[in-house]
Amino acid sequence: MTQHQQTLRISTTGKSLCKITSQVQAVVVQSGVRVGLCSLFLRHTSASLVIQENADPDVLKDLENFFAKLVPEWENYIHSTEGADDMPAHIRTVLTQTSEQIPVANGRLQLGVWQGIYLWEHRQRGSSRELVVHIMGES
Amino acid sequence: MTQHQQTLRISTTGKSLCKITSQVQAVVVQSGVRVGLCSLFLRHTSASLVIQENADPDVLKDLENFFAKLVPEWENYIHSTEGADDMPAHIRTVLTQTSEQIPVANGRLQLGVWQGIYLWEHRQRGSSRELVVHIMGES
Amino acid sequence: MTQHQQTLRISTTGKSLCKITSQVQAVVVQSGVRVGLCSLFLRHTSASLVIQENADPDVLKDLENFFAKLVPEWENYIHSTEGADDMPAHIRTVLTQTSEQIPVANGRLQLGVWQGIYLWEHRQRGSSRELVVHIMGES
After folding, report:
1. pLDDT score for B30
2. Which of these, A123, C39, C40, C128, has the minimum number of CB atoms within 10 Å of its CB?
């Protein structure tokens, strides 16, 4: 068993799902691991991870619309000094994922045919986000 | 340290929580791992994983009812070509889990007394779902 | 590669987020692992884990308020024998996390600057909760 840890920096645009499947797969290749587990950890509290449909971009729009309605910006939040979108961004993060684990076989992420990995930016403005990729397994 | 990776196929019925604790425990036994970590990954975007109460089946009905109300089928979704239940199924998946990790000790999943592992089918029709079980640890 | 598994008992007060970052970091130190992955698993179905902002306590109040509104206690739940707060506690657990994974480097959890680890008690009364910490990596 061996392990490989690497941090990716990902630039996001505001309130949108950014597909990162290929960047993560590239780290799996660099790790040399053929069979194992790839663990993802996002070092932020106002952006999150989801694994979702990679085909129809309308799914991403519906996700964005659903969460905008579920966690409205203009609620009466106590924590409001960092902007109207900040507390909703924290709640949206809590409702989705900060870490994900994906098995690896034959040197490839064992995602289903329709699965893509997404970094979901929940703030109105984009920024640079840090994702730690940790891979354990056998080469 | 050793590892064991195996894919289970699980037949679901529509919109229901299917208990899979014993199937996962059986893979732990086959792996020979006594102390370690069992990682589960569901290869789908319209079904998900939850760890929940294994005693009163009414809890599962209430979960189903709550999610049916939280993510209504007849909203005005853009992604609608695959049926009225498809986009809600994606949203319900995002709100729950695609991967779970459970520690193993003495060759057994270290679930709490009341915890069961469930595969949650979010589509109206059941289907065959693939769950990757990846176990790392010492035998 | 080595591993270390340890169970922490954490006393909670009712319906609140309890910061556990330092207890988890202490287990990482005890494990002797310098680079690896720290996996957390909560052995309960009415309390959960979240990784959230560690600075402004108002964020925690807003999270509590949001979930109180999203999952009301006085809905008509079928499962009601264990109190009005029990079924909402199960739903709140499903909407958040039972397991989390955090990478370790230089013997420290690789949390972002603003990230803290929280155990979220969803019942009205506090209790003693069991958290399994499983660390894999190299010393």
Report:
1. 98
2. C128
Q: Residue C49's pLDDT is what? A: 98
Query: What does the angle CA A84 – CA C51 – CA C98 come to, to the nearest 5 degrees?
Result: 125
What SS3 class is residue A51?
A: strand
**Cβ <8 Å between A62 and B90:** yes
Nearest Cβ partner for A36 among B3, B43, B91: B3
- Is beta strand B47-53 parallel, antiparallel or unpaired with respect to B115-121? antiparallel
Helices (H), chain B: 21-31, 57-70, 86-95
The span from the CA of A89 to the CA of A71, in Å, is: 9
Q: Is C1 in CB contact (< 8 Å) with chain A?
A: yes
Q: What percent of chain C has pLDDT over 90?
A: 99
CA of A64: how far to CAs of A16, A58, A119, B84, in Å? 7, 10, 13, 18
Q: How many domains does chain C have?
A: 1
Categorize the per-residue pLDDT at C1 as very low, low, confident or very high, splitting at 50, 70 and 90: very high
| Residue C28: its H or E element | helix C21-31
Q: Is B137 left (phi over 0), alpha (psi -120 to 50) or beta?
A: left
pLDDT for A74 equals: 86
Q: Who contacts B59 (Cβ-Cβ below 8 Å, separation ≥6)?
A: B52, B53, C79, C87, C90
List the domain range (segments joined by +) for residue A13: 2-138
What SS3 class is residue C27? helix
Question: The whole model's pTM is what?
Answer: 0.98
CATH at C57: 2.60.120.460
For residue A79, the tally of other CB atoms under 10 A from its CB is 18
Q: How many CB atoms lie within 10 A of CB C22?
A: 9
Residues A84-106 pLDDT 10s? 999 999 999 999 999 999 999 99
Q: How high does pLDDT run on average in chain B?
A: 97
Whether residue B33 lies within 8 A of chain C, CB to CB, comes out as no
Q: How confident is residue B74, by pLDDT bands cut at 50, 70 and 90?
A: confident
Report DSSP state, residue A32: T
Q: For B101, name the nearest residue in chain C, comparing CA atoms only.
A: C99
